[in-house]
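Example 326, ligand zinc ion.
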Amino acid sequence: MTALEYIKQVPKAELHLHIEGSFEPELMFEIAQRNKIEIPYATIEDVNKAYQFSNLQDFLDIYYAGANVLIHEQDFYDLTMAYFKQCAKENVLHAEIMFDPQTHTKRGVEFSTVINGIQRAREEAEKEFGISSLLIMSYLRHLSEEDAFETLQQSLPYKHLIKAVGLDSSEKGNPPSKFQRVFEASIKEGYVPVAHAGEEGPAEYIYEALDLLKIARIDHGNNCLTDPKLVERLVQEKIGLTVCPLSNTALRNVDHIDNHPLKKMLDLGLKVTVNSDDPAYFGGYLTQNYISCIEALDLSLQEVKQLVRHSFEYSFLSEQDKEKFL
Ligand code: ADE
Ligand code: ZN
């Protein structure tokens, strides 16, 4: 069997997916229309023109604007269900889904509206497609620590539905240290900590995420490659890295997929996984991320099997649930 044949059918897990980043233009148009909200695109062609990014901030500005049309519980359900339907097509059997409550509560949408819509889709996906999922509540790092504390408070009635807390949005100038106290408090509440680090920011931010936020997994982490000592530590401590190849090229953190460091990271012994990040914006869901890497980096069947294995091993499933997939 070739690596390409293998990846198309094998059961796999996705560990880095922003649900707001799976918002396809067609669904955005539909929800905008029923909620009577203006969006700056008349056609799919306009959308494609707008989705040309030169860095993370460029993308974030458009991503937050897109999320503005999400108002009602049904909108969050539709958004999440569309992602699960894609998972079912690709045999993604486990997904760890990030959501950004502040993107919505800042606009006056209740925390409960967001999570109830997502939760209803999760339950249906489990029942209909046999897809398991976990939720990662991400704090927006361009906002204040106080704001993150407020979000933590809002989440507490729904603690049983949320596995982990994350840190996303504009990385440069917003180091993990800014959120040390809210992560401490989140861990006390029982949340598992993760954080985006080393996507655009320096290796120093990865050290901070490890030492100050006590993270259990790093989102992206590519920039660890500038620091051999850090690489050694990540290997030794078996820290999972959720790498997002098509995101990295779309946001110009990597100039071309042929130069993506995924294979190098694997060769160094880093615990890398493949993920889609914001697939509606970056041109591919999970399987396409694998396919692009297999083709560009000439990954072997063995290497792809290892990446898929990592996707379950470094998930937050219980050891017992992992056994079902490994
Ligand atoms: N929010 C959504 N996608 C993101 C990314 N790739 N980096 C930081 N924040 C994000
Ligand atoms: Zn991300």
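Summary: The domain at 3-316 is CATH 3.20.20.140 (TIM Barrel).
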